[in-house]
Write a structure and sequence with these properties.
Helix content is 46%, strand content 15%. Strand 8 and strand 9 (188-191) form a beta hairpin. Helix 3 packs across helix 7, helix 4 (132-141) packs parallel to helix 8 and helix 8 runs antiparallel to helix 10. The protein is of the alpha+beta class and 288 residues long.
Length: 288
């Protein structure tokens, strides 16, 4: 079944309309894991998400749904109108705007900072803790691949976490605050895709912004703090980016294991090594 037909079928079932009533406009830019399309029904525009292979291994959809309800008063996300916690399929009101990956992000750093601060300072409590160490163990269980280099870096990270970060204040974090999950619309910024939301240290969201180039995260940190960050503060961002690199190393290994490198024509094995090397580079910078 072609993607367009699949989206039409699923959306028709979700909205209880005929399949021909669902107009599929285009696939939205973003991650490779899921299919997210811009659709229209009865003249109203929506996004519709179908979860990709293995996508529900890494996300608890009940928790995602709860977090979407919790953050609704903040008006940071587009309005969810349908959510199936079994399949993870979701429909939301379409937001007219431009994904931040398509723009020069620098003029929008104040808007990014404002959105993240709105979340971090909201005093809202997420449905769960992000559970860094347990999450890494979970992801490892899907691959059973732990190289000596990975184990050495993971042990070093856990030691730093327990000594320096475990008891730091935690706030409601998005936990995937990369540019592909941000849409600029007029004079505001939307934070989309709340799959990984949970309690975490605010530096984690700053680190996520550096997924293309880590220096982008350090730029955002200065804007967020409204001053030049200290080496200790920069290292906190490096620390959480190091975790993200270890985490996505395991996810990339899993994607390669299940054949997605061939299906998507993308070398996930190479990507997994790239993430591991990044974790090592960040660790050296922290200790330097």
């Amino acid at each position: 079944m072609e993607h367009k037909e699949l989206i039409q079928q699923r959306a028709a079932e979700a909205f209880n309309v005929k399949q021909e009533d669902v107009i599929v406009k285009n696939r939205l830019l973003g991650g490779m894991s899921h299919l997210t399309y811009h659709i229209a029904i009865d003249g109203i525009d929506y996004t519709y998400r179908v979860i990709g292979k293995d996508g529900n291994l890494f996300v608890d959809r009940l928790i995602e749904q709860k977090n979407l309800d919790i953050i609704r008063p903040l008006n940071l996300n587009n309005e969810t109108v349908f959510f199936d916690t079994t399949t993870g399929e979701k429909a939301a009101k379409y937001v007219e705007g431009t994904v931040l990956t398509q723009l020069d992000y620098r003029p929008f750093l104040p808007l990014v900072s404002k959105a993240l601060k709105t979340l971090h300072h909201s005093s809202l409590k997420p449905a769960s803790d992000y559970g860094l160490i347990d999450r890494l163990k979970l992801y490892e269980s899907y691959t059973n691949i732990k190289s000596d280099k990975y184990l050495k870096l993971k042990d070093a990270w856990i030691k730093m976490y327990q000594e320096e970060h475990q008891h730091q204040p935690k706030v409601f974090c998005h936990n995937d605050a990369q540019r592909s999950n941000m849409v600029v619309s007029k004079d505001r910024l939307y934070l989309l895709d709340w799959e990984y939301a949970g309690l975490n240290e605010f530096y984690y969201d700053i680190a996520s912004f550096g997924n293309v180039d880590f220096n982008d995260a350090l730029e955002l940190l200065d804007v967020y703090l409204e001053r030049k960050a200290t080496k200790v503060e920069q290292d906190s961002v490096r620390f959480y980016r190091m975790f993200q690199a270890l985490q996505w190393h395991q996810v990339a290994l899993r994607k390669d294991m299940i054949g997605l490198s061939e299906v998507l024509h993308f070398d996930f094995k190479m990507l997994s090594e790239k993430y591991l090397n990044l974790a090592e580079t960040l660790y050296i910078a922290i200790k330097g």
